[in-house]
Amino acid sequence: MRILITNDDGARADGIKLLEEIALSFTDDVWVVAPEFDQSGVSHAISLHEPLRVHQAGEKRYFVKGTPADCVVLAVEHLMDRKPDLVLSGVNRGGNMADSIAYSGTVGAAMTALAVGVPAIALSQMFRGVDIHWETARTFAKPLIERLLAIEWPRPVAPNINFPACPPEEVTGVSICRPGHGLIEGVNVTERVDVRGGSYYWLQFRRAKEVVEDRECDYGQLLENKITITPLRPDRHSEGDWEDFRAEYADALAVAPLPKLG
């Protein structure tokens, strides 16, 4: 088996070193193609308006001045002599759950892998304060990946795995669940002035208070020290939503003739 690993925290991050360790326990054909610098929050972005610089850091190891999605595309379409059998993205420093999924470069890399025809799994280690329990991801990532590979999950889907902010012995189970919402309340914009008098801005997510009404969503389950798996699709497919929307609003939105079904 050939495995490609990437992340959004950067090629020298602790999480990708851990993920490489896990990947090497499956096969010695492991490729690392990862952003040279932190690319958190870039989602699925690819670089269409500037060139990509690639530094070969060793055999089957490349650092890219670009996004996680850039890394996957470069690896699959150019750097590798054949496609990988699996893309592993992470292990992210911090959870990628609820609203943050939409912004996650870790998830974006997995979605891009699906777009170029390669199965993918995103992995993230939630933390609180200063303590990051990497040993939790180290303990449970390999058996979870093994079981996913054994069951041949639907290939248009990327499992998004989050490990809770606790040591391995406090993990209470595995929950397959839906993403939550309401975790991100908004974005703070801080204006600064440079030495030439020009303005520049820092953006920072404004988190909602940690009150979870939906205990069955990913964030609620993580607070109960469960490992969460949320199946994600790159087409943003939502079962049933479009039928309900059409039934409710078709007449109100009929600015052109509706197509006949069936």
Tally of DSSP helical segments: 6
* % residues in beta strands: 25-35%
Care to count the β-strands?
11
Order of helices and strands: EHEEEHEHEHEEEEHEH
In order across it, which strands form the biggest sheet?
3-4-2-1-5-6-7-11-8
- The value of Rg in angstroms is 20 Å
Which terms would index this structure?
single chain, alpha/beta, Stationary-phase Survival Protein Sure Homolog, Chain: A, 6 helices, 11 strands, 27% strand, globular
Care to describe what's here?
The protein has helices spanning 14-24, 68-79, 105-115, 134-151, 218-223, 241-249, and strands at 2-6, 29-35, 54-58, 61-64, 86-93, 120-125, 158-163, 173-176, 184-193, 199-207, 226-232. The protein has one domain: Survival protein SurE-like phosphatase/nucleotidase (Stationary-phase Survival Protein Sure Homolog, Chain: A, 3-Layer(aba) Sandwich), CATH 3.40.1210. The mean pLDDT is 91. It is globular. 26% of the residues lie in helices and 27% in strands. It has a nine-stranded mixed beta sheet with strand order 3-4-2-1-5-6-7-11-8, sandwiched between helices.
Give the helix/strand layout.
Elements lengths: L1 E5 L7 H11 L4 E7 L18 E5 L2 E4 L3 H12 L6 E8 L11 H11 L4 E6 L8 H18 L6 E6 L9 E4 L7 E10 L5 E9 L10 H6 L2 E7 L8 H9 L13
Parallel strand pairs: 1-2, 1-5, 2-4, 5-6, 6-7, 8-11
Antiparallel strand pairs: 3-4, 7-11, 9-10
Helix pairs in contact: 1-4, 2-3
Question: What's the short story on this structure?
Answer:
The chain is about 25% helix and about 25% strand.
